[in-house]
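Query structure, 85 C-alpha cells:
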C-alpha cells in the first residue's frame, strides 16, 4: 500500500491552499478520493497526480462544463492509473 496524505499534506505538495482542494471536491472533481469515517479526505500519490492535472487545466484557463469535465478527468485518471508515474 502506498503513502497516504491528508488534505493539508496534499495542499502543501501542490503549493495551493486547502480551500482550493475543497473547492475541487465541492465541484465534483474528486469523486475518487477516499474518506475516513470521520469525513477526512485521504489522498494517494495517484490522487495528487490527478489534482495536479486539474490545477494545470485551471491555470491554463481550461473552460469546462461541470458534467463533461468530470467524465474527462475520470478518463485522464484512468490513463494515469495505467501509466507509470
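Result returned for the query:
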Amino acid at each position: 500500500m502506498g503513502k497516504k496524505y491528508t488534505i493539508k499534506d496534499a495542499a502543501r505538495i501542490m503549493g495551493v491552499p486547502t480551500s482550493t482542494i475543497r473547492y475541487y471536491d465541492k465541484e465534483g472533481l474528486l469523486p475518487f478520493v477516499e474518506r475516513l469515517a470521520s469525513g477526512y479526505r485521504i489522498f494517494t500519490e495517484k490522487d495528487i497526480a490527478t489534482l495536479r492535472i486539474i490545477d494545470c487545466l485551471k491555470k491554463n484557463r481550461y473552460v469546462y462544463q461541470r458534467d463533461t469535465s468530470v467524465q474527462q478527468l475520470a478518463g485522464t485518471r484512468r490513463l494515469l492509473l495505467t501509466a507509470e508515474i
